Amino acid sequence: EAGVTQFPSHSVIEKGQTVTLRCDPISGHDNLYWYRRVMGKEIKFLLHFVKESKQDESGMPNNRFLAERTGGTYSTLKVQPAELEDSGVYFCASSDGYEQYFGPGTRLTVT
Amino acid sequence: GQQLNQSPQSMFIQEGEDVSMNCTSSSIFNTWLWYKQEPGEGPVLLIALYKAGELTSNGRLTAQFGITRKDSFLNISASIPSDVGIYFCAGHFGNQFYFGTGTSLTVIP
Fold first, then answer.
1. How far, in Å, CA of A60 to CA of B1, rounded?
2. Cα dihedral angle (A73, B100, B88, A30), rounded to 10 degrees?
C-alpha cells in the first residue's frame, strides 16, 4: 500500500512569490491534515479536511494560506505571497480516524 | 490549543543503554501516539495507545497511556545506533492531533 506522498520535497522561493505544495494521502483515508514544523519547535496543526470539506482550519496562520482538496483526493496548500516566517517543513498526514500517517514533508525556504 | 510538554528535549546515550522519554498535558486525550522522525523523512508511527493504563510494546519499544489520560511515556531498551532520530508524542482528541516538541536522541556507538 502506497504511503502519503508530498511534492515537492524542497522549495526555495523569494519573499513575495507564490508556492503550491501538494499532498496525496493514503487511498481511502477521508481525513487529511496539514502541519508545519519550524526548526526546533513542535509540529503545529494547520488544517483538517474530511473528504473535500474543511473540518477545521483554525491553525492556518493568515489569509495568505489557501488549502484545497479536490474531490476528496489529493490536497494543495498555496502560500501567496510568501513571507520569511513561512519557512519550515510542511507535513501532510492522512488518517482513517484512529492512526495518522505522515508524508515525508516539503521543506520550504523563503529568502 | 492544547499544549504537550515533552521531555527531555535531547538525549545523548551510549549504545546498549535504555532510554525513557515522556509527555504530559493539561488536557485529557483519547489516544496517545509516538512517532519517530529521521532526517529528510516524515514522522513514522511507532506505537498507538487507545486506553488509559494501556501498556504496549513494539520490539524494543514500550509505551504506556497514563491512567489520568494526561500523560504517556516511551521506553527504548538496549539502544542501537539506528535508534537515532527525533521522537514525537501526539495526543488525539476530537478531530485533532496535538504534538510535543520532540526528543532528539543520539546514540553513541
1. 13
2. -20
Sheet with A19-24, side-by-side order of all strands: A5-7, A19-24, A75-79, A65-69
User: What average pLDDT does the segment B42-56 reach?
Assistant: 94
Chain B residue with Cα closest to A107: B40
Question: Is B66 within 8 Å of B86 (Cβ atoms)?
Answer: no
pLDDT of residue B68: 93
Give Dmax over CA atoms of chain A in angstroms.
38
Please indicate whether, in this complex, the C-beta atoms of B33 and A100 are within 8 angstroms of each other: yes
Say whether A41 and B101 touch across the interface (CB within 8 A). yes
| A106 Cα to chain B: minimum distance (Å) | 9
- How far is residue B13 CA from its own chain's centroid? 17
* pLDDT at residue number A42: 83
Nearest Cα to Cα of residue A22 among A14, A11, A31? A11
pLDDT digits (tens, 9 = 90+) for A25-46: 999 999 999 999 988 788 899 9
* % of chain B at pLDDT higher than 90: 86
| Longest Cα separation, chain B | 42
Cα dihedral value A86, A59, B43, B17, nearest 10: 100
Residues in chain A whose Cβ is within 8 Å of chain B = 4, 6, 9, 31, 33, 35, 40-45, 48, 50, 55-56, 58-59, 91, 93, 98-105
Q: Do A101 and B98 touch (CB under 8 A)?
A: no
